[in-house]
What we know:
The chain is α/β, with parallel strands linked by helices.
Amino acid sequence: xxxxxxxxxxxxxxxxxxxxxxxxxxxxxxxxxxxxxxxxxxxxxxxxxxxxxxxxxxxxxxxxxxxxxxxxxxxxxxxxxxxxxxxxxxxxxxxxxxxxxxxxxxxxxxxxxxxxxxxxxxxxxxxxxxxxxxxxxxxxxxxxxxxxxxxxxxxxxxxxxxxxxxxxxxxxxxxxxxxxxxxxxxxxxxxxxxxxxxxxxxxxxxxxxxxxxxxxxxxxxxxxxxxxxxxxxxxxxxxxxxxxxxxxxxxxxxxxxxxxxxxxxxxxxxxxxxxxxxxxxxxxxxxxxxxxxxxxxxxxxxxxxxxxxxxxxxxxxxxxxxxxxxxxxxxxxxxxxxxxxxxxxxxxxxxxxxxxxxxxxxxxxxxxxxxxxxxxxxxxxxxxxxxxxxxxxxxxxxxxxxxxxxxxxxxxxxxxxxxxxxxxxxxxxxxxxxxxxxxxxxxxxxxxxxxxxxxxxxx
Length: 459
């Protein structure tokens, strides 16, 4: 079925689109421009939508806004926003009334005419997705990069051809209850995350499984051999499995042994490069490259792998050097939206940084982060909704008494950044890696990172 056929079929039904976010706007406009009966539901008011709300009305949309935006959903087809979980009571009631619940991403998978590689996990999704896309482009493929990385691809389907490759970063929100899977699936790792949205950690783990549960026997699944959840996924999969590891030997996949990266095929190894030559810093980025090399086996040569690894500068908001002021280096790691990401950032730096952390509370523990901050930070500046929880984790750490760590909690975000900068001396690094989501103050991690960079550039 083509995208045109799909939309034509929707013209005979009533459609609701929940959420006027980045991923849904192209979908909404496509449906309206095609003459579909569309109700757009959003928790914001008409005034808060501004000019875009007026545009939707002019295009013929029915708007259902405000606190009751989810009440009495009864449309034939309902596209949910990724942040609204399928087990939401309003969606369950609609499903019982006969509504078909889907999403922009699920529709994309059912219509995509080319090969697909999808990446999920708790950490490293965006960097791994970006590396895979760069590897494929350098090897000569036409690549469509999207999904959770910020670019919805459904409306770009008419521009795709069978020899292209779509690379998709997928969150647990997008994957939850999705009934389709990619040709190549990658799971980077699993740690507790988004427990404010999921029923529990097991629900989060199971949501990630959807990336491979619907694969064919000829599809491929790339797993982190050393992640404790890998046996659970391995036992549930029926596709071809290979692994990546920087600690263990695997017979099929990609490994790093004694500083050298190899591709493995039936215990035969072929050398790719030395891990120290990877341009972007940190052991976690070595793992990201191992996963990317595994995902592109059979598509990208070892020579191209090395060419990209020694030249690719990484992704914005990921250990991004913003500026040096009087010998002080400022690093934006706003993607550090979980403790494990911030820990990886701390480990990537050669010298203990002045750390700025805190943000939206996703109901995940900070105990391990507290230990790592005591061991790897020079001082700590806390702000946001989780400031007290991180403070408690740090001072309760067994390493705190000997750390000599200075901690300051400041409510105002701007003042926190300025105070951290003022405390720095020549040779110091100020690392902005919140260990939390951005939603207490910002729309997303990118907006938060851009605001941090703005403050630094104005100093």
